[in-house]
């Protein structure tokens, strides 16, 4: 029992450390790239020829905010075992010409919403700025990561005395209510020079930026017995981290293991680095081609392939338990959530659900089931979007959490390890099928 507790604690420490270092999708991808390189994976570029060897691991990034890693077993492979999650989270993004002066006494920054964020948690807490900038160099232009690692900004609430009715419900106006305070009158013209300094260039060479606000509060473990974790970006970096851990620990024997983390899920996945792009399809085709396989062999491999779309799920809420489905009640620490929707917002069907349950049983990991209440719409994810590019049996799963899309979310302290263990077994297995309705899990 103590041994078990130590293992869970170790995984949570690693997860919280990863989250603290990953304030944006760009940082998450850079950190995952470093983990892969440490494990001996070779970095491929999309713009160069690929010479692939069986038994070796590789990874490739797109836009520095999406990443696909893969490992091909020796001597050959049957299909692809794919897990996909997303690197982005809802946030406030900084606009160009960001500074707004208020009566020469304040400087605030102009921001817009990225994705469907819960607004109120962003107020009255230390915030800072991170992301990617593009700078002019001797050779052309170059992307650089920026992370202002100190308390810098705050979005102050209006005092209750000035809006007595605020607790009866408040509609946030993004242009008025969500602009962060950057400094007093002296801070004027300070923002670009701060960012240029962080990027190591002169202000004139700072050409453009993708910068986001992030919550400075670090992740923590809480609950009487440490049963919960709370941190920014659990949706969906908890799944990304757990599946990468399982991927790195796996021993692929009969199928190629493919780890995917895609960007822009929170805004519909429709970018070149999102699930609705050709990224996954391109990588699978290149693996196929580089190993001298035909197009027919590629299509045959897809029937023996399986995809796990891993994106966090809603746990039953302690204060509003009636928001959940009456008979399917997922709770934190009760295992991986398999998500179903008759309208196929989630890709899970009886086949993919059964195959994934078999994987969990093999991994000795608990699983549970999520449906929306029949009178509620719920969210969407990347599984069904990705299937329009690469069509294969797919299951939608996630880890149970509270306060999804807050800048500080809560999850179970056991579930990250459960998913890592299931991912390890998943990536070490193969699902053989010829399209006749029977499947062998090898
Ligand atoms: Co998500």
Description:
By secondary structure, the protein is an alpha/beta fold. Helix content is 26%, strand content 28%. It contains ten helices and 22 strands. The chain has helices spanning 2-20, 25-38, 174-177, 191-199, 234-249, 279-290, 295-303, 350-363, 383-387, 415-427; strands at residues 42-44, 57-62, 66-71, 80-86, 91-102, 106-114, 127-136, 141-147, 181-184, 206-215, 220-222, 228-231, 256-262, 306-310, 313-314, 336-339, 367-370, 393-398, 400-402, 409-412, 431-433, 439-441. A hairpin with a 3-residue loop joins β5 (91-102) and β6 (106-114). The chain binds cobalt (II) ion (CO). Cobalt (II) ion binds at residues 86, 235-236, 265, 311-312.
Strand content: 25-35%
Question: Spans with pLDDT under 50 lasting ≥5 residues?
Answer: none
Distance between the termini: 31 Å
Q: Residue-averaged pLDDT, rounded? A: 96
Q: How much helix, percentage-wise, in residues?
A: 25-40%
Cα-atom radius of gyration: 23 Å
Task: Using the alpha-carbon principal axes, give the shape.
Answer: globular
Sheet with the most strands: spatial strand order? 1-2-3-13-4-14-18-16-17
Annotation field: number of helices: 10
Structural class: alpha/beta
Q: What ligands does this structure carry?
A: cobalt (II) ion
Tally of strands: 22
For the report, how would you describe the main beta sheet?
Answer: 9 strands, mixed
Summed up, what is this model?
This protein is an alpha/beta fold. The protein has 10 helices and 22 strands. Helix 5 crosses helix 10 and helix 8 packs across helix 10.
Provide tags for this entry.
442 residues, nine-stranded mixed sheet, 28% strand, alpha/beta, 10 helices, five-stranded mixed sheet, binds cobalt (II) ion
């Amino acid at each position: 029992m103590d041994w078990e507790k130590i293992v869970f604690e170790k995984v949570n420490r690693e997860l919280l450390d990863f989250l603290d270092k990953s304030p944006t999708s760009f940082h998450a991808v850079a950190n995952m790239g470093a983990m892969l390189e440490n494990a001996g994976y070779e970095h491929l570029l999309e713009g160069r020829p690929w010479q692939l060897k069986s038994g070796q691991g590789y990874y490739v990034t797109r836009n520095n905010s999406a990443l696909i890693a893969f490992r091909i077993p020796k001597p050959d492979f049957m299909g692809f075992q794919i897990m996909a999650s997303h690197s982005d989270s809802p946030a406030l993004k900084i606009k160009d010409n960001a500074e707004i002066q208020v009566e020469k006494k304040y400087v605030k920054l102009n921001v817009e919403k990225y994705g469907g964020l819960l607004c109120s948690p962003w107020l009255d807490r230390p915030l800072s700025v991170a992301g990617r900038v593009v700078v002019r160099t001797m050779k052309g232009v170059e992307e650089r990561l920026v992370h202002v690692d100190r308390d810098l900004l705050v979005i102050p609430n209006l005092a209750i005395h000035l809006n007595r009715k605020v607790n009866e419900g408040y509609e946030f106006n993004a242009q008025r209510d969500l602009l962060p305070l950057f400094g007093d009158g002296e801070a004027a013209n300070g923002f670009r020079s701060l960012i240029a300094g962080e990027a190591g260039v002169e202000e004139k060479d700072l050409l453009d930026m993708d910068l986001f606000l992030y919550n400075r509060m670090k992740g923590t473990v809480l609950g009487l017995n440490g049963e919960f974790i709370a941190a920014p970006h659990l949706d969906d970096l908890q799944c990304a981290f757990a599946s990468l851990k399982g991927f790195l620990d796996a021993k692929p024997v009969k199928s190629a293991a493919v780890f995917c983390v895609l960007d822009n899920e929170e805004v519909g996945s429709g970018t070149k680095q999102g699930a609705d792009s050709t990224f996954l399809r391109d990588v699978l085709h290149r693996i196929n081609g580089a190993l001298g396989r035909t197009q027919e062999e590629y299509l045959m491999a897809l029937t023996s392939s399986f995809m796990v779309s891993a994106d966090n799920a809603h746990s039953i809420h302690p204060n509003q338990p009636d928001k959940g489905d009456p008979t399917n009640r997922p709770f934190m620490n009760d295992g991986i959530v398999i998500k179903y929707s008759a309208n196929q917002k989630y890709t899970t069907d009886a086949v993919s659900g059964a195959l994934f349950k078999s994987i969990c049983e093999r991994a000795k990991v608990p699983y549970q089931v999520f449906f929306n209440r029949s009178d509620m719409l719920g969210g969407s994810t990347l599984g069904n979007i990705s299937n329009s590019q690469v069509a294969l049996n797919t299951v939608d799963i996630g880890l149970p959490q509270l306060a999804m899309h807050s800048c500080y979310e809560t999850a179970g302290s056991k579930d990250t390890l459960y998913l890592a263990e299931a991912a390890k077994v998943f990536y070490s297995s193969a699902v053989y099928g010829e399209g006749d309705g029977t499947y062998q899990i090898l």
